[in-house]
């Protein structure tokens, strides 16, 4: 029983992932009929940069979905991460220095509250995260209204999102790459990852196997919150400022990306490569539809139909 | 005897699941007014056969004749309509619905298109009565019932459909003896009413008592059909396992009485369900827990495993008082406890994960460092265990759900052995397991005990308690009413104390 | 039951009628002090926060405060029925006037009826109501589109490729502004090739959409955006797109960029109406209750600043947030808050 | 066998605990609301509250039907928006035309729900993404119908449906109760309703028992569409117009989930009732109403709402925090 070098979940065993990547190519080819620019490296790199925000956020979402839960507090966690990071700059140079960690820490704190409620109070995640989302929104409104908010991104945030360490590859993509590698490592090589899958499969059995199911769930939510906030920080860097409701556009796409990538919404099954494919799919689809000169109504219709079409291609569940 | 035209005849049935051949050219003929026992090891194809009869799966090859006519069922509903009803090995009750809802589930009585709840109650009460389970309230939710009651509901549900052919796949595996007797009298009555019955069980004496015809399966083939009573138990078992068969239970070496107990319990109580339980378990000892089902045995094991809250009393491990608050704490090296749970599907296994992942899940701590899994160490441990337990799986990277029931159970046991526990709690581990595998498990338990582990072994099977255990705690109503030792561990004493017949009132007072 | 009278309004400098045929109304005089309510919809964006704060600040001014017994603000979110119910509640609770920033301009028919029956003065602003039975304090949304398009026409004498960044689809504001732009460009007689993308009035959405448009359809000769303009400029800079004439809104961030890059060719026309219009609405409501003559539809002046007139600390605030909207004063109405005062003060709000 | 009446009540209570808790929560909150309302407990105040709450109540019922089968419908809010836009075209004119218009709107909702169901059941897709995708489709259609807000409705009819019966009782509540009696009660007591519960509780077991799972699920999704359409119709009655409002469509979807949970319906499926979901919706709506009676700084209002929602959820979970057998966490 020799071990293959490639981790089990990444071996091309899952046809869904392969088909998802095929869909990406199909989408690009389809787009190139409209404009050959869709195949230009510039455009593709730009898409990767934009995808990296969703990618980072979807990574956290995936952890939570693998657990069999969901995180609906993404929109305002993203916003809070961005706003708090920018806010830190009000506190002089040390503030600017700590801006990014501070933003992420705020996200982690929100995730901590979610995790505590889900894991220790056993409140369904779908509702408690909705409530934390409302509370964080309230906090941000109070904050913006009352405290002369500082909301420009620091140069470090700008650099993190749009700067270049490797020529022509935006740093945002590198951040996503780093987050992705870390996520794959976590999911496939650590006890945390194993436990995550186990809990998602059957929490009761995982508990009876002596896994500290509550701590794992708490951790997953903290990771999700932190990554949402990191996504917000990147987004603020990209826009060079933070603003209210900048995270609204990330909730449903992040869920869709994770599930399009073959992760089971009820938990326990899914590969990170699939999520990568899902993120790129969603980003490309949105972008291509955005520049095609169709009425918004048409865009929405095509978006919906294409997602369902792709799911029918490979997202079908086994007959029960 | 087999001459009369059978009600159902299956010929040349084959079924494969991917690379696994579940059935190969199997034949069987079932006649009305008789009970047909199907025997075979775990994974022999019994369940697959009856799933085909009941329309749950379709065969790849072969034909099925019902009353002489070719039939093919596309769904369980179609089979029901043809009068074939089954009680599956994996219960098919809906936990969130009431008992009455479940009993009439496939064809509820209707008034104006809506379900007539009053009529439904009546039907349910009647069916429960017929199954000898009138103690079950038709309005209670199935999920609130213990396993044994659920099996009774399942049987009542089958009866309520007024079948022509009724199939019971290990339907009595969780039943207590008195329930089994009730069910048997029902089955005998049904037989006399002209029903055809198919009965699957791993308990030989049940088959001896009930069966008229028998068919033995091995590796997906029907090996032989014969009238009941024409072969000795020994011959049957050899047919089943295809090799010679020796004594089931390993010898008891006897324990040195002066060894310090590894686990000792003093006045353990929990809510109203456990009261003043006191016992010791020494290394090398197998302590049986007996009694009727649902007398607190399950709770006792859970309490020792850190699952229950607010436990009163004193638990000592290696002479050190402990208060466990989670299975994680229980399995830690300091305590080193393992629990093989009752229900493997919900508490023992992550069904859609691979055999490998299931095997190492409880021992992740010992094959990892700083949270990072050492894959070499993991593989080595797993190899070791696979040799020890002979788990039948095409590859260990397939989902555990595709193993047969018996092999799944072996995985549950194996995953805890990865941890090398010093205290092993077992909750009816041989339920639904064939004799061959059972024998392996008994041997394994003895080997563990000899290696210095203390074993607490709850079983609903008296033979097991008698054959395996050095000592047996008999529980009644949440407390230990008697402790049997040596020659006292026999069927008469076990049953007597389980029913708490006031044979020895002094004993009761002696263990308060 | 207000009387239709002839103009002019009691305060003609502030309350200019919307059109020449706008009716003048006189409500029966009520004794003060008054109970006035503000029924806001969505709250979680900077414009609305600024608006609510301006409303509170205006109501707290001594001469206004003296006329008010109570000033209550409720924000009901995106949901139209919730806002309708809030107005109903205010009517039932006996408020004298209700000022509303409507989530949907057509959805308030039933409430307008009820308010009229109950003799409650209803004043709508920003997103106004399609009715003659309430007072509208109007922003000429279509006129804004016209302004921006005229700016582009002026700077692109030979026509060219235009990028239009639109707002939230399905809203009347987006459609009005879009129509203004489209009609003006068409009327110019020059050849304009317009690429439309949806920016949802949100900087990061607009930025992404612009970046995509530049990468696939660019470069453009002119840009117009009705919100999220800071993001649009950011996208141009990220893509190293040459600066081109830009007709846009009044975000501080946008104006900062316009001022900073004016020399590089970023010629902007920044027009809009700030959140302070709520103050005009309140002022109008009080005037109506006092029995003064007012127009049924008040036309707000737009705060328009164009290249090269961007003045520091007046038209934009380099040290302040990008997100707030400049143009917070209506001098002719005696409303002279600067955005800086509203968004910058911390103590006042404690 | 005789069964004592007290036993019967115990089982009934066990079964309806969630619904009762939701009802209690609503009553407490509503009492706080009206007792602080300047106008007090008058028919007008009740009418206003009920008109506002009924939309969410319908969508929550829709959500509940689907959640019972262990599915979820993230398109419920968009079906409401689509039906609102459609109604603003067709529910006008003579009484006969209006009648046909109403039927058309309800059929449209039914069709949306059926589409969801067909894709999920026969395409074997996960409900959560499927309905995210169909909600984009429904919103696209709504935008086609109403690129800008507008349209109209038969105002006389609309006024009847949003006013009071005999000057006291809100008509919308009567319609709500009638819908429960005509849609929910027959469904929940039909074979399909039972199969829907079974599908949510233990799908495999239900399959083994030969229950009509596919038709039951399809019925649940289709009826969900119908109920969302009722919501859309009411939105039209209450606002006289149609609007393709993306944000409010999404808001209704998310609120409906919150309402369903507050109403004691288990998101895991198999448990709960539409009556509970309706009380959940009423309670949720009352949170918003509380803003009106408490004098809060406007900028603190969103925070207040969030915290009250959290408290309401917390009340529902008190019981679980203190179980004596830790395995009960995992039910
Ligand atoms: N769904 C499935 N997928 C893959 N293999 C299967 C599946 N169902 C059964 N098998 C395989 O088919 C063989 C026969 O299984 P079956 O369940 O019929 O055995 P059995 O005689 O009922 O055993 P037991 O006594 O343990 O219940 C086993 O090897 C099993 O692993
Ligand atoms: N046609 C089918 N329709 C629905 N479920 C099916 C079908 N075939 C197999 N299954 C399910 O697949 C799983 C594995 O099948 P099966 O029960 O035969 O495995 P097994 O391990 O042999 O079980 P056991 O030996 O314990 O009876 C079970 O949960 C079964 O219910
Ligand atoms: Mg079997
Ligand atoms: Mg089997």
Automatic annotation (TrEMBL), chain A:
The keyword Cell wall biogenesis/degradation does not apply. Its main location: membrane. It is an enzyme of class 3 (hydrolase). It is a multi-pass membrane protein. Keywords: Cell membrane, Hydrolase, Membrane, Plasmid, Sugar transport, Transmembrane, Transmembrane helix, Transport. Pfam families: BPD_transp_2. One of its GO terms (cellular component) is plasma membrane. One of its GO terms (molecular function) is hydrolase activity. It is found in: Cell membrane. Its EC number is 3.6.3.17. The chain crosses the membrane at residues 16-36, 48-67, 74-92, 98-120, 127-148, 168-187, 216-238, 250-267, 272-291, 297-315. The keyword Transport applies. PANTHER family: ABC TRANSPORTER PERMEASE PROTEIN YPHD-RELATED-RELATED. This is Simple sugar transport system permease protein. The gene is rbsC7.
From TrEMBL, chain B:
It is an enzyme of class 3 (hydrolase). PROSITE patterns: ABC_TRANSPORTER_1, ABC_TRANSPORTER_2. Residues 8-244, 255-502 form the ABC transporter domain. Keywords: ATP-binding, Hydrolase, Membrane, Nucleotide-binding, Plasmid, Repeat, Sugar transport, Transport. InterPro entries: AAA+_ATPase, ABC_carbohydrate_import_ATPase, ABC_transporter-like_ATP-bd, ABC_transporter-like_CS, P-loop_NTPase. Its EC number is 3.6.3.17. GO terms for molecular function: ATP binding; ATP hydrolysis activity. SMART domains: AAA. Pfam families: ABC_tran. The keyword Repeat applies. It comes from the Bacteria. The keyword Transport applies. Belongs to the ABC transporter superfamily. This is Simple sugar transport system ATP-binding protein.
TrEMBL record, chain D:
The keyword Cell membrane applies. Its main location: membrane. Pfam families: BPD_transp_2. GO terms for cellular component: plasma membrane. Its EC number is 3.6.3.17. Keywords: Cell membrane, Hydrolase, Membrane, Plasmid, Sugar transport, Transmembrane, Transmembrane helix, Transport. It comes from the Bacteria. It is an enzyme of class 3 (hydrolase). It is a multi-pass membrane protein. GO terms for molecular function: hydrolase activity; transmembrane transporter activity. The keyword Transport applies. The chain crosses the membrane at residues 12-33, 53-72, 79-96, 102-121, 128-145, 165-185, 218-240, 252-268, 275-294, 300-321. It is found in: Cell membrane. This is Simple sugar transport system permease protein.
């Amino acid at each position: 029983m020799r071990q293959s070098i490639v981790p089990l979940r990444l071996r091309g065993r899952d046809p869904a992932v392969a088909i998802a990547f095929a869909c990406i190519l199909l989408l690009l080819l389809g787009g190139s009929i409209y404009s050959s620019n869709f195949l230009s490296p510039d455009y593709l790199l730009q898409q990767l940069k934009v995808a990296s925000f969703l990618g980072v956020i979807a990574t956290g979402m995936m952890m939570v979905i693998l657990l069999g839960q969901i995180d609906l507090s993404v929109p305002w966690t993203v916003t809070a991460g961005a706003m708090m990071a920018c806010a830190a700059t009000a506190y002089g140079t040390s503030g600017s220095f700590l801006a990014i960690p501070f933003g992420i820490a705020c996200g982690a704190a929100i995730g901590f509250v979610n995790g505590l409620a889900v894991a220790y109070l056993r409140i369904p995640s779908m509702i408690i995260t909705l409530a934390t989302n409302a509370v964080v929104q309230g906090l941000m409104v109070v904050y913006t209204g009352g405290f002369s908010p500082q909301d420009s991104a620091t140069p470090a945030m700008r650099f993190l999102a749009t700067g270049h360490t490797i020529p022509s590859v935006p740093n945002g993509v590198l951040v996503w790459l780093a987050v992705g590698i870390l996520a794959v490592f976590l999911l496939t090589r650590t006890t945390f990852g194993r436990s995550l899958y186990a809990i998602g499969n059957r929490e009761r059995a995982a508990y009876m196997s002596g896994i500290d199911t509550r701590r794992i769930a708490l951790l997953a939510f903290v990771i999700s919150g932190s990554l949402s906030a990191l996504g917000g920080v990147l987004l603020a860097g990209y826009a060079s400022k933070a603003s209210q409701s900048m995270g609204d556009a990330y909730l449903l796409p992040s869920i869709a990306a994770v599930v399009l990538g073959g992760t089971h919404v009820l938990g326990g099954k899914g590969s990170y490569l699939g999520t990568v494919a899902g993120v790129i799919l969603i980003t490309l689809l949105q972008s291509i539809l955005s520049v095609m000169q169709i009425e918004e109504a048409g865009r929405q219709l095509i978006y919906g139909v294409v997602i369902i079409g792709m799911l029918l291609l490979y997202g079908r569940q086994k007959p029960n | 005897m087999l001459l009369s035209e059978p009600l159902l005849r299956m010929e040349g049935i084959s079924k494969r699941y991917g690379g696994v051949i579940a059935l190969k050219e199997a034949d069987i003929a079932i006649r009305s007014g008789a009970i047909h026992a199907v025997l075979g090891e775990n994974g022999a194809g019994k369940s697959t056969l009856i799933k085909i009869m009941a329309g749950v799966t379709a065969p790849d090859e072969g034909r099925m004749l019902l009353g002489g006519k070719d039939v093919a069922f596309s769904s369980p509903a179609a089979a029901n309509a043809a009068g074939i009803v089954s009680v599956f090995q994996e219960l098919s009750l809906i936990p969130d619905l009431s008992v009455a809802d479940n009993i009439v589930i496939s064809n509820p009585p209707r008034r104006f298109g809506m379900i007539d709840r009053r009529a439904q109650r009546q039907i349910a009460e009647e069916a429960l009565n017929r199954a000898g389970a009138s103690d079950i309230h038709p309005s209670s939710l199935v999920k609130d019932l213990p396993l044994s009651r659920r099996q009774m509901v399942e049987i009542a549900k089958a009866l309520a459909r007024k079948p022509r052919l009724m199939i019971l796949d290990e339907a009595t595996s969780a039943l207590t003896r008195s329930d089994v007797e009730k069910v048997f009298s029902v089955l005998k009555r049904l037989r006399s009413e002209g029903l055809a019955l198919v009965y699957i069980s791993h308990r030989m004496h049940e088959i001896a008592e009930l069966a008229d015809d028998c068919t033995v399966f091995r590796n997906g083939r029907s090996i032989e059909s014969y009238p009941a009573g024409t072969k000795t138990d020994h011959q049957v078992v050899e047919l089943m396992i295809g090799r010679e068969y020796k004594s089931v239970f390993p010898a008891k070496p006897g324990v040195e009485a002066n060894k310090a107990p590894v686990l000792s319990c003093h006045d353990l109580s929990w809510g109203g369900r456990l009261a003043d339980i006191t016992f010791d378990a020494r290394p090398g000892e197998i302590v049986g827990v007996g009694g009727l089902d649902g007398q607190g045995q399950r709770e006792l094991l859970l309490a020792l495993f850190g699952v229950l809250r607010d436990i009163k009393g004193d638990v000592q491990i290696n002479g050190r008082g402990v208060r466990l608050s989670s299975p994680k704490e229980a399995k830690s090296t300091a305590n080193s406890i393992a629990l093989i749970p009752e229900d493997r599907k919900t508490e023992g296994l992550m069904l859609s994960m691979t055999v490998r992942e299931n095997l190492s899940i409880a021992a992740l701590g010992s094959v990892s460092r700083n949270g990072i899994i050492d894959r070499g160490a993991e593989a080595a441990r797993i190899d070791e265990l696979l040799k020890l337990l002979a788990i039948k799986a095409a590859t260990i990277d397939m989902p555990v759900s595709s193993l047969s029931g018996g092999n799944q159970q072996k995985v549950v046991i194996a995953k805890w052995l990865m941890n090398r526990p010093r205290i092993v709690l077992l909750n009816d581990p041989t339920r639904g397991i064939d004799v061959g595998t059972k024998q392996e498990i008994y041997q394994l338990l003895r080997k563990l005990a000899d290696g210095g582990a203390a074993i607490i072994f709850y079983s609903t099977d008296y033979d097991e308690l008698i054959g395996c255990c050095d000592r047996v705690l008999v529980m009644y109503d949440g407390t230990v009413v008697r402790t049997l030792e040596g020659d006292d561990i026999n069927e008469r004493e076990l049953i007597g104390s389980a029913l708490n017949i006031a044979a020895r009132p002094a004993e009761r007072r002696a263990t308060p | 039951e207000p009387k239709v009278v002839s103009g002019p309004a009691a305060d003609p400098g502030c309350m200019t009628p919307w059109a020449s045929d706008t009716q003048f109304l006189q409500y029966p005089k009520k004794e003060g002090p008054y109970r006035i309510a503000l029924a806001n919809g969505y709250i979680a964006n900077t414009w609305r926060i600024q608006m609510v704060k301006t409303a509170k600040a205006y109501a707290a001014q001594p001469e206004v405060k003296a006329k008010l017994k109570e000033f209550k603000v409720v924000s009901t979110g995106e949901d139209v029925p919730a806002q309708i119910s809030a107005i109903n509640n205010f009517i039932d609770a006996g408020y004298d006037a209700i000022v509303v920033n409507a989530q949907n301009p057509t959805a308030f028919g039933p409430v307008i009826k009820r308010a009229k029956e109950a003799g409650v003065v209803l004043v709508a602003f920003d997103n106004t109501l399609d009715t003659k039975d309430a007072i509208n304090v109007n922003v000429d949304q279509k006129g804004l589109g016209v302004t921006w398009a005229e700016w582009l026409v002026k700077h692109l004498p030979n026509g060219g490729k235009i990028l239009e960044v639109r707002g939230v689809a399905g809203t009347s504001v987006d459609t009005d502004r879009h129509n203004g732009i489209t009609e003006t460009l068409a009327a110019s007689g020059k050849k304009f090739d317009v690429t439309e993308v949806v920016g949802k009035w949100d900087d990061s959405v607009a930025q992404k959409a612009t970046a995509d448009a530049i990468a696939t359809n660019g470069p453009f000769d002119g840009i117009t955006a009705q919100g999220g303009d800071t993001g649009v400029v950011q996208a141009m800079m990220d893509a190293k797109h040459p600066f081109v004439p830009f007709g846009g809104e009044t975000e501080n961030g946008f104006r900062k960029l316009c001022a900073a890059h004016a020399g590089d060719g970023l010629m902007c026309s920044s027009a809009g109406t700030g959140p302070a219009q709520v103050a005009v609405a309140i002022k109008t409501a009080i005037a109506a209750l006092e029995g003064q003559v007012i127009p049924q539809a008040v036309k707000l002046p737009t705060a328009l600043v164009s290249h090269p007139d961007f003045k520091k600390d007046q038209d934009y605030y380099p040290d302040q947030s990008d997100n707030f909207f400049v143009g917070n004063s209506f001098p002719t109405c005696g409303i002279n808050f600067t955005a800086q005062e509203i968004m910058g003060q911390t103590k006042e709000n404690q | 066998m005789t069964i004592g009446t007290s036993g019967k009540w115990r089982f009934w209570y066990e079964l309806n605990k969630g619904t009762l808790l939701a009802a209690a929560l609503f009553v407490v909150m509503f009492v706080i609301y009206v007792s602080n309302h300047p106008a007090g407990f008058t028919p007008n105040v009740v009418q206003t509250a009920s008109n506002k709450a009924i939309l969410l109540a319908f969508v929550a019922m829709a959500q509940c039907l689907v959640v019972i089968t262990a599915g979820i419908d993230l398109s419920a809010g968009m079906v409401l928006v689509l039906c609102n836009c459609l109604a603003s075209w067709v529910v006008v004119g003579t009484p006969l035309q209006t009648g046909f218009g109403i039927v058309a709107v309800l059929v449209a909702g039914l069709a949306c729900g059926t589409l969801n169901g067909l894709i999920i059941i026969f395409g074997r897709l996960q409900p959560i993404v499927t309905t995210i995708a169909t909600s984009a489709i429904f919103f696209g259609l709504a935008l086609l119908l109403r690129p800008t807000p507008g349209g109209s409705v038969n105002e006389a009819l609309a006024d009847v449906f949003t006013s009071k019966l005999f000057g006291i009782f809100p008509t919308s509540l009567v319609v709500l109760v009638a819908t429960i009696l005509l849609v929910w009660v027959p469904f929940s007591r039909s074979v399909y309703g039972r199969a829907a519960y079974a599908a949510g509780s233990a799908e495999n077991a239900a399959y083994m028992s030969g229950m009509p799972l596919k038709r039951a699920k399809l019925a649940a999704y289709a009826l969900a569409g119908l109920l969302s359409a009722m919501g859309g119709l009411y939105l039209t009655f209450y606002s006289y117009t149609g609007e393709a409002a993306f944000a409010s469509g999404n808001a209704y979807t998310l609120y409906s989930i919150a309402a369903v949970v507050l109403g004691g319906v288990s998101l895991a499926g198999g448990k709960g009732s539409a009556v509970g979901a309706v009380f959940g919706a009423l309670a949720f709506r009352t949170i918003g109403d509380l803003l009106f009676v408490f004098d809060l700084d406007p900028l603190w209002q969103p925070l207040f709402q969030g915290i009250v929602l959290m408290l309401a959820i917390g009340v529902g979970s008190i019981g679980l925090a203190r179980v004596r057998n830790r395995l009960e966490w995992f039910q």
